[in-house]
Design a protein that fits this description.
Blueprint lengths: L1 H33 L3 H19 L4 H27 L2 E2 L8 H11 L1 E3 L5 E9 L2 E8 L5 E4 L4 E4 L4 E3 L5 E4 L2 E3 L8 H6 L2 E5 L2 E5 L4 E7 L1 E4 L4 E4 L5 E4 L5 E3 L2 E5 L6 E2 L3 H8 L1 H35 L7 H8 L1 H4 L2 H11 L6 H6 L9 H30 L2 H9 L4 H29 L2 H7 L19 H10 L6 H32 L1
Antiparallel strand pairs: 1-18, 2-12, 3-4, 3-9, 3-12, 4-5, 5-6, 7-8, 10-11, 11-12, 13-14, 14-15, 15-16, 16-17
Helix pairs in contact: 1-2, 2-3, 3-17, 6-7, 6-17, 7-12, 7-14, 10-15, 12-14, 14-17, 16-17
Length: 512
């Protein structure tokens, strides 16, 4: 009976947790459905059904353990990778950030010009029968109208109340908005567009003022063109996210829209003269930075490990001091180093009695970057090299000494090759990590120095990841599609290095 009671208790707890899980995801699916996100809705429903089946059924035992991890793997790894890959094939940059429907709507909104009638109105914004509405008082003849989304309803005297300023302030069923304290005031005003016939609209021109306007542009879905109403000029869809002048395709209307551009982002990195120069230089520096960092960190760490492998006085104290840079958060150390390299108040210039601009000279900045990364990274290799040295059989060194080998021969021909064989996967992992060492580069040099006068975006110390970040979020033109293409290239390089590292580890295990 006691066992049955415990079993029932756990069943109730499981049902309760599944109920909470299903309720939360069900609510998310409902909100996604309201937003028109059918794919997200479908995925959430599948997740709910699978979760309930796996944990209420006795058969899929292994799935009970794999299911949570698989869900998080898909959400935080597979989806971002897939979405980045998809975005790398899109024209998605400043001026082309919205859908085509939104772009046409905005072109119509910004393309309004005053109608020939010249009629203007005093306006009060509010709601009528739950919908956005405006009370309009004609400034020429004083007539009052109630403007709804698709209707202009004239009001007779006695159906409205005049305010102190002499124009209509309220009518039955009309709830006035306090636009001054309304966080979405601009969006509300942009939605006021009441047709009055002959392509003329009443549109807001401020919080309390409206005028009769006419659309400059009219979209023709049959021909997929945009027509200038005043001149009759036709703008055509160039198939690349913009309406353009057919006689001069470089003349475009903005905003444009997101559009598929296949592999143009990748081709631009190698073929566009504005991009391939900076990209190639950044790519070369990224490889050089990663390799030099790996060599220097391992070299210093291994050297210190060999020195402290011998029994010397105060060895434990020296070992503790050696790992201090590893114990301090790297972002704090990087900011401290940045201050030390400061031209005016930096400690290095104070000690040298000079005003060396360490971080604004390309080669000095690169040297500073390598030095700081060496400081941050060598303790790690010191620790792993110490462990590797202790794992080496002592008989090897004893036999070498008996054979007459010198200390340098033992170091170069025995210790170093064996340690390299043990640490090869870690060296490859370090190489891959420094391909993406965003924090160090951005906190120390921000990728600079950069010749911003010539409009350059890539700096002397930029690596691929910081260049992708700048491409996406810095400068006058933010190009998310191009940044995604750079990210995919980084992913392929890191993926290849990781795969090679795994194969090396496997081959080492087989040799042993």
């Amino acid at each position: 009976m006691k066992s049955l009671g415990i079993r029932n208790t756990w069943l109730m707890v499981k049902i309760l947790l599944l109920g909470i899980f299903s309720s939360v995801l069900g609510f998310m699916a409902f909100m996604a459905l309201l937003a028109g996100e059918w794919l997200i809705t479908l995925v959430l429903i599948v997740v709910i059904i699978l979760g309930n089946y796996i944990y209420l059924s006795k058969k899929p035992v292994a799935a009970k353990f794999f299911y949570p991890g698989t869900i998080f793997l898909v959400i935080f790894l597979v989806v971002p990778i897939g979405y980045t890959g998809f975005m790398s094939t899109q024209l998605f940059k400043t001026g082309n950030l919205i859908s085509k429907e939104e772009a046409v709507t905005q072109l119509n909104a910004v393309g309004l010009t005053p109608a020939e009638s010249g009629v203007t109105y005093d306006m009060v914004v509010g709601r009528y029968e739950g919908n956005l509405a405006v009370l309009l008082t004609n400034q020429l003849d004083g007539t009052v109208s109630l403007g709804l989304r698709n209707e202009l309803r004239n009001l007779n005297e006695g159906e409205y109340e005049l305010g102190e300023l002499g124009y209509a302030q309220s009518t039955d069923g009309f709830l006035v908005f306090d636009l001054a304290n309304e966080p979405n005031a601009e969006q509300i005003l942009s939605e006021i567009k009441i047709p009055v016939g002959n392509d003329v609209f009443i549109a807001s021109q401020g919080f309390d003022f409206a005028a009769e306007m006419i659309e400059t542009y009219r979209y023709d879905p049959a021909t997929n063109t945009l027509v200038d109403v005043s001149t009759g000029f036709v703008w055509v869809d160039n198939g690349a996210g913009n309406f353009v002048n057919p006689d001069d395709p470089e003349e475009k209307l903005f905003p444009g829209w997101r559009a598929q551009n296949s592999g143009q982002n990748y081709l631009a990195l190698f073929l566009d003269p504005r991009l391939n120069g900076p990209f190639v230089s950044v790519f070369i520096w990224t490889i050089a930075f990663s390799i030099l960092t790996m060599i220097t960190m391992f070299g210093l760490g291994f050297l210190v490990a060999v020195v402290l492998d011998k029994k010397i006085r105060g060895r434990n104290l020296y070992r503790a001091i050696m790992i201090l840079p590893y114990a301090i958060p790297s972002f704090m150390s990087t900011l401290v180093w940045a201050g030390m390299f400061n031209r005016e108040i930096g400690v290095f210039n104070a000690l040298l009695g000079a005003e060396i601009d360490w971080l604004n000279d390309p080669w000095l900045a690169r040297g500073a970057l390598l030095l700081v990364n060496l400081w941050l990274g060598f303790p790690y290799f010191y620790l792993v090299a110490t462990g590797a040295l202790q794992a080496l059989p002592g008989e090897l060194e004893e036999a070498a000494v008996i054979d007459g080998a010198t200390s340098s021969q033992i170091f170069w021909r025995i210790k170093l090759p064996l340690v390299l064989e043990i640490l090869a996967p870690l060296l490859i992992a370090s190489l891959a990590f420094n391909f993406n060492n965003f924090n160090l580069v951005y906190l120390l040099t921000r990728g600079g120095p950069t010749d911003s006068v010539d409009g350059e975006l890539a700096g002397a110390t930029d690596i691929l990841i910081t260049y992708a970040y700048k491409t996406a979020f810095s400068g006058a033109e933010q190009d998310f599609g191009l940044a995604s293409a750079i990210s995919v290239i980084i992913f392929l390089i890191i993926g290849a290095l990781s795969l090679w590292s795994l194969r090396q580890s496997k081959s080492l295990e087989e040799q042993r």
